[in-house]
Design brief:
Distance between the termini of chain A: 31 Å
Structural class of chain B: mainly alpha
Helix content of chain A: 40-55%
Number of helices of chain A: 10
Oligomer: heterodimer
Largest interface: A-B, 45 and 51 residues
Low-confidence stretches of chain A: none
Number of domains of chain B: 1
Helix content of chain B: over 70%
Largest sheet of chain A: 2 strands, antiparallel
Number of helices of chain B: 12
Number of strands of chain B: 0
Strand content of chain B: under 5%
Largest sheet of chain B: none
Number of domains of chain A: 2
Mean pLDDT of chain B: 83
Radius of gyration of chain A: 24 Å
Order of helices and strands of chain A: EEHHHEHHHHEHHH
Shape of chain A: elongated
Low-confidence stretches of chain B: 244-255
Strand content of chain A: 5-15%
Strand order of the largest sheet of chain A: 1-2
Shape of chain B: elongated
Chain lengths: 230, 255
């Protein structure tokens, strides 16, 4: 399976367990940046209005706010809000370090100061090029800080469609990939037709105990069991 | 169509993840895609230039409008390579009958203005449905990923424009005595500069493989979900890995 093209980043921990996360590429990250940019712009605009209403005496303070928003906003969210700025949260993204642990203050400052490199020569083009050609979609700041942007894995399953299915405990241990396949089959996420469901379920006919004549029912049952119904 | 030969990992993906996968695929076939794109686009561009030699912008408009045409050989090549069918540069060109004409009239007219065209281009080229089937098909494919397909077009269009500007700024930074970057610079584009013309064409061709592959992966990932490819492949591997070789299930999938 490992020779297949994928966007998964694998980490082997010293304990021998494999962690994996899906790295996020140029398009969602650019859009998340766009959201953050608009948020910052909005705050500066509102504050700018206040400054102009008070006769410009707060102009210096406006510059301080500008500075803090430009350099402090991303660092604050990455370190104290679990790697999710407002834009990243909107696109379900999260900044982590390369070993998938939460990013620390130092690396976060590095990756954000190096936005100056990514922004060169114009509108983050170096960052886009770097993200496109590096194996794990890292911009220059990410490469320096050894950080990654991954998709947050908070999958929620809607099990209401399975209310008529009796859970069936599998007789042999199933790998993680197989469990996902059983669950996806049970939830019928792609709205497969009945004949297609039969076709797929019959592939594992030889694996079904008692050679049940309802392979679809069996796979759905196991899927429901795997989802936690006992 | 043999699902076992797929070169991508099949999972149920979000639209964003499908676009990212498209970027990885595009990276693998980037040089070949770029050459294919230029092979078709350059003659068109040259022909427009010699015909409309008084209006410098007309060739650009035609180039932009014909983008779906130039992307077709890339799409055809990817659709074969996706299933490990070798489709090199010359081989793709020699199959021109398969990618040049099918649905070309549609692609350059009504379907050109669709903002989700990257995701639906494979429907026209590979499935070749009738007009009413096309509408049903895109409705089914689009009900999950249409928003991502739209943003793909918007973002890559901006990246392409920014790339052209960025190269201009970079050159102005590196050679400040030769290029002055101001509004007059844009006027000077009107004076037929070969460097500007073919430089822009090259930069458009640099981005195109990513747009084509990302749109194609949106289409493929939606089909994975709709047709249960991920489940089928996983079950088939499970049975094949644990049974004796004589019992192996045939790997040929239906279409």
């Amino acid at each position: 399976m490992s020779d297949k093209i994928d966007t998964i980043h694998l980490v082997e921990t010293p304990e021998g367990t494999d962690l994996h996360a899906e790295v996020a590429g140029v398009v969602p990250r650019a859009l998340a940046y766009g959201v953050d940019f608009l948020v910052r712009l909005g705050i500066l605009f509102v504050f700018g209005l206040i400054v102009s209403f008070t006769g410009g005496k707060l102009g210096g303070l406006w510059l301080v706010v500008f500075f803090l928003l430009e350099w402090g906003y991303p660092v604050f969210y990455e370190v104290y809000r679990d790697g999710q700025s407002i834009g990243k949260r909107a696109f379900n993204l999260r900044v982590v370090s390369e070993d998938l642990t939460p990013i620390k203050f130092g690396p976060s400052v590095v990756r954000n100061l190096l936005r100056t490199a990514d922004i060169f020569p114009f509108l983050y083009i170096f960052g886009v090029i770097s993200m496109t050609i590096s194996a794990r979609f890292q911009r220059l700041g990410d490469l320096a800080a050894k950080s990654l942007v991954i998709y947050d894995d908070n999958q929620q399953y809607n099990t209401t469609a399975l209310s008529d299915v009796t859970p069936i405990a599998p007789t042999i241990p199933l790998s993680e990939d197989l469990q996902t396949a059983f669950i996806n089959f049970a939830l019928n996420r792609g709205n497969l037709s009945h004949s297609r469901q039969v076709e797929i379920a019959e592939i594992i006919q030889s694996k079904i105990p008692n050679q049940s004549n309802d392979p679809v029912g069996y796979v759905r049952g196991v899927g429901k069991w795997l989802l936690g119904a006992k | 169509m043999n699902l076992d030969n797929l070169i991508i990992a099949t999972r149920v993906r979000t639209g964003w993840s499908a676009i990212d996968l498209g970027f990885v695929v595009a990276r693998q076939f980037w040089l070949r895609s770029l050459l294919l794109y230029l092979t078709i686009a350059t003659p068109v561009f040259i022909a427009c230039h010699s015909y409309f030699d008084t209006n410098y912008w007309v060739p650009y408009v035609i180039l932009w409008w014909c983008k779906p045409l130039f992307e077709r050989p890339i799409l055809f090549m990817l659709s074969r390579e996706l299933f490990k069918q070798p489709m090199g540069y010359w081989r793709t060109l020699s199959h021109w009958r398969d990618w040049l004409l099918p649905g070309l009239g549609w692609v350059l007219t009504l379907r050109r203005i669709s903002i989700t065209r990257g995701m639906y281009a494979p429907v026209t080229l590979l499935e070749r449905p009738s007009a009413s089937d096309y509408n049903k098909r895109t409705l089914v494919l689009g009900n999950n990923f249409a928003s991502q397909a739209t943003w793909l077009t918007v973002v890559l269009y901006h990246i392409e424009s920014f790339l052209v500007l960025a190269v201009a700024v970079l050159l102005a930074t590196l050679f400040p005595n030769h290029i002055e970057f101001n509004f007059a610079f844009f006027n000077s584009l009107a004076e037929h500069s070969l460097v500007v013309d073919y430089g822009s064409l090259l930069l458009v061709a640099v981005v195109a493989p990513f747009y084509t592959a990302a749109g194609f992966m949106l289409y493929i990932c939606r089909r994975v979900e709709l047709e249960g490819w991920d489940i089928e492949i996983c079950f088939r591997d499970w049975v094949a890995n644990s049974s004796s070789p004589t019992e192996q299930v045939s790997g040929v999938a239906h279409d």
